[in-house]
């Protein structure tokens, strides 16, 4: 495929620090306050969809932001950053509505993936992918996809993990730093479930939106949320590159891991990136070695076939990142979250004459400061976030990311991606907000204007004659 749809579903942790003697709002109440503020800004009453094409709702104790359909990895990285910025902008309004309802305290939103109680919440990835090829039917192609992509997925933590203090679901396996937040929760190579059996490769939801015709929705649940747009871009973009090679059957030698789940756990617990991972053929490789094998395949592919400017950019960043990880990780400060976070925590330990190897570090009072900084890094409020504090010390007081300028992020908060069906949903909502017209956005592929239904099956179709005809005919207010 030369064209692809990318999307993410990011779950934000929400909590409320109540003043003494006051009651605590439920998670659903917190998300409802956010949703009300979002509706006032760029949404419609009784709809989970908003004007930039995204969907926002409460999902099992978390605020979930399902991003609009995007045409590139860079575009989805932008909309992911726009969601963070919108959440921060909504906070004052949401907190005020909670105060009016009698809840006094401070509302916190964090973009991480595990809480102190041992619960994990996701940043799920969605890719439009071919269902089969001219040479392989669906089942055979699916087996090949799993076989080819799992070693990459098990080792890509080094490119895009956010970092975490603690080993095990509740930190019960030790007090140390690891790369991934969801890594310890992954317990299967392949799964259809998303909660109990969490697989590196997920087969659920294949037939959900943007899976029309010969395409399927490839849904990944193993990933962590990134504060850095650089990490999101690498995470989604490198996988997109490998999908292209796979769909063209341009695949080379694959480093088959003997135990992919155990390998992922080992990679997560090895900030040095030197742990040796056993292969089926008896060899051993580091995560960097495995990633380089995939990168070399992409480079060979790019020599034979046309590539876009974005694909060439991704190949360059992938190569530079692996080189830096091997030779000078500090060059990735501000770009790769786990490296950025770890450098701050390392400095704190060093300034107190400690290290991660200090005996009984988990019993030292500094552990609470380390855990506090771990969470603070992911706060979406720029005035409270460690990530934004570090970023702005380098780039200026208004910086939001290393990839995106403030104006691009601002535009993406209210405007949908221009070249997918998200544009139609977004423009219908924007029109209804201007005219107070009657509109329903039923789901990703259906809108109703003035009671008349319009289906949006093709996710690439950014213009809908039927929808705009209804708007122009005055059906919006009927």
Task: Explain what the structure shows.
The protein is of the alpha+beta class and 478 residues long. The protein has a domain at 421-477. Helices cover 41% and strands 16% of the residues. It is built from 14 helices and 15 strands. The protein has helices at residues 27-42, 73-100, 138-155, 157-160, 229-247, 260-268, 287-304, 309-327, 337-351, 366-376, 386-395, 406-414, 422-435, 465-472; strands spanning 6-18, 55-59, 62-66, 105-110, 123-130, 164-167, 174-178, 188-191, 199-202, 215-220, 277-278, 284-285, 439-443, 446-449, 452-455. Strands 1, 2, 3, 4, 5 and 10 form a 6-stranded antiparallel sheet that branches. A 3-stranded antiparallel sheet has the order 13-14-15, with helices on one face. Strand 2 (55-59) and strand 3 form a beta hairpin. Helix 2 (73-100) crosses helix 5 (229-247), helix 2 crosses helix 12 (406-414) and helix 7 (287-304) runs antiparallel to helix 8. It is globular. The model has no long low-confidence stretch (mean pLDDT 92).
């Amino acid at each position: 495929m030369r064209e692809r749809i990318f999307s993410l579903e990011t779950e934000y942790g929400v909590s409320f620090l109540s003043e003494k003697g006051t009651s605590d709002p439920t998670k659903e109440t917190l998300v409802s306050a956010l949703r009300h503020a979002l509706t006032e800004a760029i949404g419609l009453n009784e709809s989970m969809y908003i004007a930039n094409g995204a969907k926002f709702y409460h999902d099992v104790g978390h605020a979930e932001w399902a991003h609009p359909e995007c045409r590139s990895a860079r575009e989805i990285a932008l909309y992911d950053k726009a969601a963070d910025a919108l959440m921060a902008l909504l906070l004052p309004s949401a907190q005020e509505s909670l105060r009016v309802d009698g809840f006094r305290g401070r509302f916190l939103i964090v973009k991480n993936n595990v809480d102190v109680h041992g619960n994990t919440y996701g940043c799920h990835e969605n890719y439009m992918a071919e269902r089969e090829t001219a040479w392989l039917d669906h089942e055979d192609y699916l087996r090949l996809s799993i076989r080819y992509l799992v070693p990459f997925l098990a080792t890509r933590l080094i490119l895009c993990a956010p970092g975490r203090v603690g080993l095990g679901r509740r930190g019960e396996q030790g007090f140390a730093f690891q790369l991934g937040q969801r890594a310890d929760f992954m317990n299967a190579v392949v799964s259809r479930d998303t909660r109990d059996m969490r697989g590196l490769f997920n087969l659920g939801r294949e037939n959900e939106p943007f899976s029309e015709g010969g395409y399927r929705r490839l849904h990944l649940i193993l990933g962590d949320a990134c504060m850095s747009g650089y990490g999101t871009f690498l995470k989604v973009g490198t996988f997109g590159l490998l999908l292209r090679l796979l769909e063209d059957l341009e695949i080379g030698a694959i480093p088959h891991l003997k135990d992919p789940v155990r390998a992922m756990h080992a990679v997560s617990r090895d900030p040095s990136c030197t742990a040796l991972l056993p292969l089926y053929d008896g060899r051993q490789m580091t995560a960097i070695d495995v990633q380089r094998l995939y990168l070399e395949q992409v480079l060979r592919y790019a020599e034979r076939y046309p590539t876009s400017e974005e694909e060439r950019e991704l190949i360059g960043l992938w190569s530079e990142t692996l080189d830096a990880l091997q030779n000078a990780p500090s060059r990735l400060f501000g770009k790769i979250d786990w490296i950025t976070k770890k450098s701050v925590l390392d400095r704190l330990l060093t300034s107190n004459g400690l290290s991660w190897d200090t005996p009984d570090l988990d019993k030292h009072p500094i552990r609470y400061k380390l855990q506090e900084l771990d969470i603070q890094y992911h706060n979406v409020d720029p005035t409270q976030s460690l990530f934004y504090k570090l970023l702005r010390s380098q780039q200026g007081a208004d910086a939001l990311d290393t990839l995106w300028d403030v104006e691009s992020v601002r535009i993406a908060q209210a405007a949908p991606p221009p070249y997918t069906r998200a544009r139609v949903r977004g423009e219908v909502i924007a029109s209804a907000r201007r005219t107070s017209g009657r509109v329903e956005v039923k789901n990703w592929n259906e809108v109703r204007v003035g009671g008349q239904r319009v289906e949006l099956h093709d996710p690439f179709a950014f213009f809908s004659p039927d929808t705009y005809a209804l708007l122009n005919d005055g059906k919006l207010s009927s």
